[in-house]
Amino acid sequence: MNFLTAKSCQLPAFWYPALSMPDAPPLQQQTPDTLMLFGFWYRAMASDALKRGQMRSTMLLEQPLVVGRDQHGKPFALRDACPHRGMPLSYGQFDGHNVECPYHGWKFDAHSGQCTLIPSLVADQIAGQKIKVDRIYAGSYPCEERDDFIWVFIPDPVPSSAGFTKAAPAHEPAPEVPKFSERYKLAYLTADLPCSVDHGIIGLMDPAHGPFVHQAWWWRSQHSIHEKQKNFEPIPYGFRMSAHTPSSNSAPYKLLRLYAKADSITTTIDFVLPNLRSEVIRAGKYWFSSLTTVTPITRNQCRIDVVAAWNLFHWIPLAPALLKFVFAKFVEQDRRTMEIQSEGLKHNPHLMLIDDADRPAKWYFGLKKAMLETKKSGGGFQHPLTGPVTLRWRS
Ligand code: FES
Ligand SMILES: [Fe+2]
After folding, report:
1. Is the CB of residue 84 below 6 angstroms from any atom belonging to ligand 1?
2. Which listed ligand is nearest to 331 at the C-alpha?
3. pLDDT per residue over 12-54, tens digit each?
């Protein structure tokens, strides 16, 4: 997928000796605490992967999780490790309210993680308050459902008093796909990528791979490569490719132009930490938007999830199916590319980022570095962009 859906690069003006994090170890050798940003919402799994009363184990940022859905359909997320002796709770039973550990049968409230029962205690041990059952907690995470996905907030690691800590609430709601009308359609795609979250994200925002990776007769060929120019501006914790009329060389835009007034089509693309790429296309009263995330699973494994919402194309039969086909093809091309790239990365090659095509990738590393510094020092956020910038490249 083309992060910056379009545009071009000049021939390299600068060659960077390493991936623009001068003090950091090579990209593939980063440790999880510099590679993955804690203190944010992440997509854990698609809503339809989880029925009422079910639980499933998963992993986010190398944290083992058990995600479930209570008897009312409300999702929850617990650390997949019993605070007693570490048994994965996902092997236990869930009655729709409480999760029961399969080892000694301790029970935990699914939403708060609070311990509700320790079966081995005899009556006077409970009465004598030798052990206060309700002071014990399984690790629990804020959990919300948005746009067909279950999101989990992964907090900054705290010096743990493990087993006795109630989860802190998230300081903001989970991100949402931008929407501009009451009625709309929603569809999603998901794919596992065998690379670190950084490679997943910079692959997503890389404008120069389009003509080579995303060739298809109905989209574009290598010969359609041409010079492009786009304006960018800083936004809080991210950057925006300013609203522009989309590139003329792709078939879907040509189609869209037929149905809406051509001069009214604009595209805006934002990237915001930790991993959110949103794109909004507006054509008069019609709109199409998407929120793509690249989620760290482990240090060398991530997952891309694309959720799209739209109120257009309803007059074209099978449009959603067609759209899903196009997106799926793009995502598969990216996935396959990253799979092959991971073979090369195994051997720790020297890497470089060039201007202007890799500038968004440099901004990403700049944003991330600024975020890590802010978390460490508690100081202000040093945004890598100080004002609007125009980038030029060929693609
Ligand atoms: S390990 Fe879970 S109850 Fe003992
Ligand atoms: Fe791509």
Report:
1. yes
2. 2
3. 223 333 344 444 445 555 666 678 999 999 999 999 999 999 9
